[in-house]
Amino acid sequence: MAHQLGLNLPSRTALGRDAFFVAPSNAMAMAMIDGWRGWAGGKLALTGPQGSGKTHLTHVWADLSGARIISAADLLEADIPALARGPVAVEDVHLIAGEPAAQTALFHLHNLVLAEGQALLLTGTGPVAHWGLTLPDLVSRMRGATMVEMEAPDDALLSALLVKLLADRQLTPKPELINYLMTRMDRSFAAAIALVDRLDAASLAQKRPLTRALAAQVLDIAPPRT
Length: 226
Fold this sequence. Notes:
Blueprint lengths: L26 H8 L8 E5 L6 H12 L2 E4 L8 H4 L4 E4 L8 H16 L4 E5 L11 H8 L2 E4 L5 H14 L6 H8 L6 H18 L5 H8 L7
Parallel strand pairs: 1-4, 1-5, 2-3, 3-4
Helix pairs in contact: 1-2, 6-8, 8-9
């Protein structure tokens, strides 16, 4: 079989429901997204480590509900009343921990969305209590949100994530390469994302196929015996 060389093609991240791999570590989160019409108080806080699939699930929910998606850091520039006319997903709330004005904007958005009878999805890294929010009224609203956490990946999920990340870059790895990576990489979502970025960059820069030898170079370990 011919080797697959890296090509400088645009990365196309698949964010649809069919591309989301359901595993024990994220099944509860997926169930909550599917049952979004029944969220207590009309809101949900989705938490988990970087790269755990929060953005993917946010897009799945947007497809289901017609929600608009906005980063918490962009709220200051947003038309809050216009946003509140429909379901809204606010991503990376933890990133406005030191931004009082952005927290105030989120507080007003929260109140308007729920007053309009719409639904609100909030995402962040780590438990809501650790998001570092300091506006008392906003903190109290966050305490009232149901929280669902996406847990660290098991083998099946981490393997599927590697395949998906490579596919997003138009690369189709052989199963033995995935197994090789799985036994040598740091076992986290963030590590998988960083590793695929490095593999893709090395393949493009060196015009080499994506093989175990290239993976060994990227991982800085002795190359496998042939």
